[in-house]
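Internal ticket - ligand job 430, S-adenosylmethionine:
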Amino acid sequence: MKNKDKSRTIVKISIHKHFQGLTLKEIEAIQDEYFKENNLDARDKAFVKNLTLTSIRNRGILENVIAKYLDRPLPKKLTEIKSILIMGVAQILFTRTEDYAAVNTTVNFFEGRLKKWRGLSNAILRKIIREENYKNKKYEPRLNVPNWLYKVWKKQYGEKNTEKIIGYIFKESTLDLKIKKDFDFWKKEIGGEEIVYNTLRLKKSGDPKKISGYKEGAWWVQNLAAQIPVELMGNIKNEKVLDLCAAPGGKTAQLLNEGAIVTALDISEKKINKLTSNISRLNLEKNLTAISKDFLKWNSEKKYNKILLDAPCSATGTVRKNPDVLWNKNEKDIERLVNTQKKLLDKAISKLNDKGILVYCNCSMQFEEGEKIIDFFIKKNRVKLLPIKPEELKLFPKEIFKSGFIRTLPYMYNEFGGLDGFFIARFIKA
Ligand SMILES: C[S@@+](CC[C@H](N)C(=O)[O-])C[C@H]1O[C@@H](n2cnc3c(N)ncnc32)[C@H](O)[C@@H]1O
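stdout (structure tokens):
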């Protein structure tokens, strides 16, 4: 098989896995295995990654176009058929692949038990090329947001802001590098745009391992919005900090780099190993204790003055990098996550010393996982909100500050290319 065919096979498998509910991160891990097995070069790998991302990012538009040219819906169970068609149409609408190559290579995937779909697929793809007028068309990005989610955002943020969010989330994400030290030196080495907090912003998010300073441990990848929680913990030099739900460790690196003595805990052993290796690459392991344990079952008696809880969430705020989150989460998942977030927060509060500070954050844009959770805890009277004031984060746009907490959205800080969506609140033990 030629490498291009191998590449498309991996894309087809990836889209199929997406339909089966795997996250983009999980899919990327599978792709890495295939890359090794098939000995693919950097160009082929980039082709696979781009086509996979383009297909998932534009899933709503692609499904909509395909549906227009079908007389009756595809069989729900055979998601493989849809995966192949999505891959084909994505190439026609959104890449520079020649139309004939997109059609031929797609149709060739209909073999064996799928052979009977070959004729229909061929006809659909040719019809799209003939009738869709796609070269002159601007597809509505709104189609890429499932209806239920659109409705929730509209209720939370209003129609105008929801349209602004949608206008931002389907653009390629920037890559923010937090520089450990010697900022000016690394700025010259790496390039990119200097934004606040010793951070360089790169316009394209390629493979970080290829960026200068990776091996030297000169920086770590961390979106600017994700840096805010640690900035709000006050002076943490030589302070003991409990870092909950810590892996893969972006915020752990930040805490250690600020001089804190950190206990980092995460439920996943695999992810804690990743955290440890990330922190070792940065040479910051001296003051780190890493624990792999379910926090809800952690029996330590120790209490802390400073706790960070970066709770597991729907991650809708990171949709620019992870467009799959729009499709693989539903209202039930969010309910389940809220339940876990409440339990985690409840237990985190019990680990606080009197007057101790707890920063709660997550990268969701859903009020249930942010605003509504803090309301719930404040009403229970176990903690008080320690309001976050604009003076503490002078270089940020005023629009991120709500009533004492922070809500960042993808269109904010837009003169520099936007921010991930985050919710951040700071509590003091009541
Ligand atoms: C949003 S990620 C954390 C990101 C991390 N703080 C950083 O800055 O790189 C959430 C993490 O919570 C962990 N997690 C989920 N449930 C947990 C639990 N019950 N106890 C401890 N960790 C948990 C997940 O394994 C995941 O790594």
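Auto-summary: The longest strand covers residues 352-362. The CA atoms of residues 64 and 342 lie 38 Å apart.
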